[in-house]
Task: structure prediction
Amino acid sequence: METILSLQHVNYSYEDDNGELIPVLKDFSLEIQRGSFVCVLGHNGSGKSTLAKLLNGLYQPDQDSGPILVDGLNTRDEKNELEVRRRVGLVFQNPDNQLVTTVVEEEIAFGPENLGLPRDELQKRVDEALLAVDMQEYRNHATYKLSGGQKQRIAIAGILAMRPQILILDEPTAMLDPKGREEVLSAVRRLNREQGMTVILITHHMEEAAKTDRVIVMKNGQITADSTPQAVFSQPQLIRDAGLSLPQPTELTHRLIQEGFPIDKEVLTVEQAVAAISKMLKEK
Amino acid sequence: MVDGISFGQFYPVRSFVHQMDGRVKIVLTIAFIVFLFLATNAASLLICAISLFFFIAATRVPIKTYLKNVRAIIPVLLITAAFNLFYTDGGTVLFKIGSHISVTTNGVQTALFMAVRILLLIISSAIMTNTTSPTVLTDSIESLLSPLKWLRLDIHSLAMMMSIALRFVPTLIEETDKIMNSQKARGADLESGNLLRRIKALLPILIPLLISAFRRAAELADAMECRCYHGGDGRTRLRVMRLSWRDGVAITVFVLLLVGLILLRRM
Result:
């Protein structure tokens, strides 16, 4: 598969209040394939949000750093700035702090307006983005009257209207209730499946990671695991070392294994746990 | 408690006034405020009120919203009326309070006129903000002030700041409510003591609110940059401002109103 994003030996550090350089990412290398659904897991301060902001050029890597290439464009190159931001759409945690206007339609048009698109194209983009997040009937609603999940879907639509190649979501469900979380996640999954959008989901909800193609675990600015969800979650010690906890069904099966029960190791969801346990009971 | 102060909030429906050009709405609102101070007798204030009433009807915004807008300024209204009542001389003395303050017929008249003027002023600006979305408001202000660009003023940024301020009104009201509740839960006493004590009690609310507003501003700036915002250069608009027959009708009504006011002033 084609590589859409590549980071080669990237360093990033910031200056703290005392003028000391604090390293966040150290010799960080990563490649992301077009059309994949990647989950980045990590505890607070693991550098995962910094990674997101580096990928769309909001932050610039250190002078001695290797390049960050988005679809072949170097994010350091100033003339690529707008094009990189257009191609790498970034959605943040708090929907309230991302909405610029008070009407849904105008909110979605904000990005394409900045790109200087003609008016009929703007309208087309708005319709298309509303459809993608299944919010057509809200086109003339006030943004501040929507629920958290709806606001976050509008924030995603606002990014989609710029027709990005990659969608990065930085803990998009952290401030939502379970219903809102499911709304947002199913919209994102649909985008990946039906439109082949490359998605990078940054989260610390293990359950969200279970349904992706590839899980990357970060700790102190470095990658400590990079594999399929099954492979990553079958290494409980690695997950705990990163300051994270396993998905509950996985935790349960691991404890059963420790107690000596012969049970399938690669369990991620409740359904799989039910199947594995009933299989074990039948075999007994 | 802070309840939904809806002033300045766009009410999204389709109506005659909603579809008017934002620039025309701004200019006419300013004109109306000038008219109110040209109206020096009861008849002229009455025709101002009547024309305003027609515009309210043409907005299709529920009367309830306007009542809410008005409710917020009742204290200002009463204080202004009281000052005019007690400090206007002339006319027949109705009664005296002490030896210095007397209430005269002129006083009653001025107080009433002033109250009505402020009321109509608030309603007319509410018509504008209820029917114009912040984006359109921004674009209109930008367009109206564009001659100032010759003085190298950054009109686009100014207009953008205003529209973001309006956008964050409900968010910050909600936040104030949350902070008040959490400070109360920690035992903060916000509702007793003299004025000075109460003002002091507001500090633990204002400081967290201010800090959070700065954090929100920083996040919003990041989010805007992520959406390729780079000032007004080369920006296109979903809503294009174009004058329509509605603006013609509204302007005609205003010209007639002005003629009426001039005639009534002569009488």
About this structure: The domain at 3-228 of chain A is CATH 3.40.50.300 (Rossmann fold). The mean pLDDT of chain A is 90.
